[in-house]
Specification:
The complex is a heterodimer of chains A (about 350) and B (about 130). Chain A has about 350 residues and is of the alpha+beta class. Chain A is built from eight helices and 19 strands. The longest helix of chain A is centred in the middle third of the chain and has 15 residues. Chain B is of the alpha+beta class and about 130 residues long. The termini of chain B are close together. Classes of the chains: A alpha+beta (about 350), B alpha+beta (about 130). At the A-B interface, α7 of A face β4 of B.
Amino acid sequence: MKNTALTDKHIALGAKMVPFAGFNMPVQYEGVNIEHETVREHVGVFDVSHMGEFFVTGPKALELIQKVSSNDASKLTDGRAQYCCMPNEDGGIVDDLIVYRINEEKYLLVVNASNIEKDWKWISKYNEEIGATMEDASEQYSLLAIQGPKAVEAMQSLTPTDLSAIKPFHFEIGEFAGMPEVIISATGYTGSGGFEMYIKNESAEQVWDRVLEAGADYGIKPIGLAARDTLRLEMGFCLYGNDIDDTTSPIEAGLGWVTKFTKDFVNADALKAEKEAGPKRKLIAFELTERGIPRQGYELFNQDEEAIGVVTSGTMSPSLNKGIGMGYVLADYKALETGILVKIRKNMVPAKVVKLPFYKK
Amino acid sequence: MNIPSDLKYTKDHEWVKIEGDVATVGITDFAQGELGDIVYVEVETVDEELEREEVFGTVEAVKTVSDLFLPLSGEIVEFNESLEEEPEKVNSDPYGEGWMIKIKMTDASEVEDLMSSDEYKELVGA
């Protein structure tokens, strides 16, 4: 199992460590509910250095990205980032990722830790014909996510860059916490605003310490993966391996907004046909109208107790204090307010289809 | 870690308090710490008579669902219904307000199979 550059820091802080995607990661420090609330109300810092970083460079960089990405990376300008997925050839999704345009011939692709090797092979296969330069920098970079409504104020003293001026899905490369050339990206996986900072491993401990110091007056706390999951689920952000995988299509997963048929990409024709015909099943968000907690793998039923689908993510929402989840259902049941049933152990618990996000500020 | 000496324990990290033929059951301080924030306690076996080791309910933390095993055979005569609204009491006061059920025992001899606090301490390495 791999450690991040910050593993010793987490252990010293008393974190509960768990294996995740081959890494020894902090799942919680103080408790998931307080950590969740800290990010919603104040500011928290996550070590998400397990994420993978690929640089794609050279005159063919954009062509390669356009081939594998569902979104249209030609719309990016320097200093902008874009969420997308990589469709496979069989209707599913290889991974979801963020593409950063550093300059015309230099892009950064940030991928899920569990998929680093798979993605590298996948992109390399298409690069054989295209010939861009690829570098897997995953083991050189650490990633700190500093998330919450106080993130700008709490971090401003650490950088000459005007943090309040960085709009969502934009980034700057500048000095941060005494380190040069940090990628300061206004992105995240919580829905509470903030930044993701890409730093070299050798700088990670110093940056971590200075982030905690600078944030102390704003109530900053270290946040584990358990709260990362409840935060992202309250927003309805897909988690690869739960809500999307090699067998789910971007269309049925509700990722049509990052699937652009204005350009050619892997499996575009089949996905376009699926979009036009309408997918047979659809990823929906639901909340329980009675007490209970939906969990991944629980079955979904219609009012006649006929099976209609399965839960892909579920939790007790710390902000809303009710059971929330996402899951695939037959397209007939995707409409908002549709009443469905979640089988929790031996009980059929009523739920209704709702609009995302679950949590609104 | 708090392991009161006047209680009995099981390998499933439950505590048992015996008063006459009634046993009060909850989960230990060690168990609540391992589970983390408890968000749901479900017990739908009130008035049922169950054998020792049968599942009498479920405790859910944010990321986990765990079965609750009956430490002694008997009838479940009461569930701590305040846990429906405030499951966090299992974290904050596992041996007090976080109690889960009361059992009317059918075989008092089973009590002898429960662990003492010293035996439980050894089990969890406290």
